């Protein structure tokens, strides 16, 4: 089997699970409409909605994966704080119970694609919330050593065993544990995040904390002389 065959067979399997569930609940409702009370009907429709959302998310991620190698990024000078703020606003709506705390007094400039930087930050901050309990903190810190800009996202969640250092960045890889089983995901988010980060000359890594995980994004500081030579597009 080629990598392409592997990809197609995994994608088909991943698509089939929610589709089977949507069809099953729709068939049950059609066959037993008169016998079902309103509460059951509502519950079945909620499952159909949930599974449809899962499918949409999956298809969006699969499209991102297939586009990545050919995609042209629009790199320009940007301050990171605006992207961080946008990502926090998006995630706060989805995870209102988490305390997302930002320690980003100074703004730092990097050479990046605004939309893709937002996608990267949304993925990492969403994971920080997804794999930790409601009510816990997610801390976002930025710093620089004049060569690189660092964005650190710390959570108080279930943590990641160091043995998965490479694996979690691979396509479709999810670590089996109770919280992963409870949450929906495709295992494509970190693959996409790593690819986009590297396309912007950045690096991504993680380390375990006493409680939880810290993801670190590292991008070269915007340097006017160096970047003046680069054309737009990458
Ligand atoms: P998913 O769609 O499953 O969230 P990702 O590629 O974003 O896919 O992440 C891959 C796996 O890495 C997840 O399924 C989860 O097991 C693990 N993971 C990612 N981020 C975290 C985190 N902050 N804490 C604990 N586990 C994490």
Task: Give a brief rundown of this model.
It is built from 7 helices and 7 strands; from the N terminus they run H-H-E-H-E-E-H-E-E-H-H-E-E-H.
User: What is the arithmetic mean of pLDDT?
Assistant: 91
Strand order of the largest sheet: 2-4-5-7-6
CATH class of the largest domain: Alpha Beta
Quick one: how many beta strands?
7
Bound molecules: adenosine-5'-diphosphate
* Spans where pLDDT lies below 50 across 5 or more residues: none
* Shape-level CATH architecture of the largest domain: 2-Layer Sandwich
Q: What composes the largest sheet?
A: 5 strands, mixed
In angstroms, what separates the terminal alpha carbons?
Answer: 32 Å
Beta-strand content: 15-25%
Tally of contiguous helical segments: 7
- As an assembly, this protein is single chain
CATH-assigned homologous superfamily of the largest domain: Histidine kinase-like ATPase, C-terminal domain
Shape: globular
Q: What is the chain-wise order of helices and strands?
A: HHEHEEHEEHHEEH
């Amino acid at each position: 089997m080629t990598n392409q065959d592997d990809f197609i067979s995994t994608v088909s399997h991943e698509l089939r699970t929610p589709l089977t569930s949507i069809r099953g609940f729709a068939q049950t409702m059609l066959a037993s409409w008169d016998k079902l009370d309103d509460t059951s009907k509502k519950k079945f429709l909620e499952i159909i909605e949930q599974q449809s959302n899962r499918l949409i998310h999956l298809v969006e991620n699969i499209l991102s994966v297939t586009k990545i190698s050919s995609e042209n990024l629009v790199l320009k000078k940007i301050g990171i704080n605006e992207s961080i703020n946008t990502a926090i606003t998006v995630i706060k709506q989805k995870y209102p119970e988490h305390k997302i705390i930002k320690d980003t007094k100074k703004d730092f400039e990097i050479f990046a694609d605004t939309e893709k930087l937002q996608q990267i930050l949304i993925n990492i901050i969403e994971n920080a919330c997804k794999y930790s309990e409601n009510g816990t903190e997610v801390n976002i810190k930025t710093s620089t050593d004049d060569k690189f800009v660092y964005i650190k996202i710390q959570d108080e969640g279930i943590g990641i065993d160091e043995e998965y250092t490479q694996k979690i960045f691979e396509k479709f890889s999810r670590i089996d544990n109770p919280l992963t089983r409870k949450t929906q995901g495709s295992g494509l988010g970190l693959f996409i995040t790593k690819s986009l980060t590297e396309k912007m000359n950045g690096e991504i890594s993680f380390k375990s904390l006493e409680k939880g995980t810290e993801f670190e994004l590292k991008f070269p500081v915007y340097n006017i002389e160096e970047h003046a030579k680069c054309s737009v597009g990458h």
